[in-house]
Amino acid sequence: MVEYHKALSDKTRLRILALLKVEDLCVCELVEILQISQPAVSQHMRKLKNAKLVKERRSGQWVFYSLDGSMYPFFEKVLQSLPSASEEIKQLKASGLKVLCD
Amino acid sequence: MVEYHKALSDKTRLRILALLKVEDLCVCELVEILQISQPAVSQHMRKLKNAKLVKERRSGQWVFYSLDGSMYPFFEKVLQSLPSASEEIKQLKASGLKVLCD
DNA sequence: ACATTATATAAGCGAATAAATATATAAATA
DNA sequence: TATTTATATATTTATTCGCTTATATAATGT
């Protein structure tokens, strides 16, 4: 319970979850959108993964992350209350940096 | 949203909320149950209050805290998933340290 | 007014956390 | 096999957090 809330008590991780609500993303796409270093993204994803809020799936050289959190009955409502990030995903696609292989 | 989750990402504060689910408590009662210093309890209560998860009410020399959190649609479910603390309250009463003035 | 009890705030210390830099692993491709 | 691209881990440093001790404020009672 503590680990779950720790995972969500960071601005960047809440933003990552809002982005994953739109669609699955790989690390390099998150680096592009969030404008932080790749190791920083990886460490955030590890925390979210340890808290069982995301799942990872490898596709070729990329690792895609998707929302999970099915074990927390309130997580769904938390996700709903996050602001929409569809605009940021749109900009990623417009910039031509969306990974297409998936 | 970050502040809300930070407030809940501590074992002691989750325990305090579980205790308040049973009934309103004042600081000195929490000190007795939790076996930590009075300033430590006050500091936890300030964080919970800043996150709008508890309300305070003065009654004579005591300050009683009660659950709030009405602005978070998921908080109710989080509370439900906390373990029952009624046994600890029962022990407090048995020890004669329950504040009765209220 | 003074002493007692309850609570809050401030300062300081050790532990946990976040982020950057450097390095390692893994897959794809020439 | 060597190189490039993507991701993970390790290390270091700076910040944050929780707790304690000390002090301040507030209410009660003598």
Structure description:
- Two copies of one chain form a homodimer.
- The longest helix of chain A is centred in the middle third of the chain and has 13 residues, at 38-50.
- In chain A, 54% of the residues lie in helices and 14% in strands.
- Chain A has helices at 2-8, 11-22, 27-34, 38-50, 75-80, 86-94, and strands at 25-26, 54-59, 62-67.
- In chain A, β2 and β3 (62-67) form a beta hairpin.
- Chain A has one domain: Winged helix-like DNA-binding domain superfamily/Winged helix DNA-binding domain (Arc Repressor Mutant, subunit A, Orthogonal Bundle).
- Chain A binds a DNA duplex (30 and 30 nucleotides) through residues 6, 10, 12, 26-28, 36-46, 58, 60-63.
Largest interface: A-B, 15 and 16 residues
Distance between the termini of chain A: 33 Å
Helical segment count of chain A: 6
Count the strands of chain A? 3
Compact description:
2 copies of one chain form a homodimer. Chain A is an alpha+beta fold and 102 residues long.
Keywords:
homodimer, 102 residues, alpha+beta, Arc Repressor Mutant, subunit A, three-stranded antiparallel sheet, 6 helices, 54% helix, 14% strand, DNA-binding
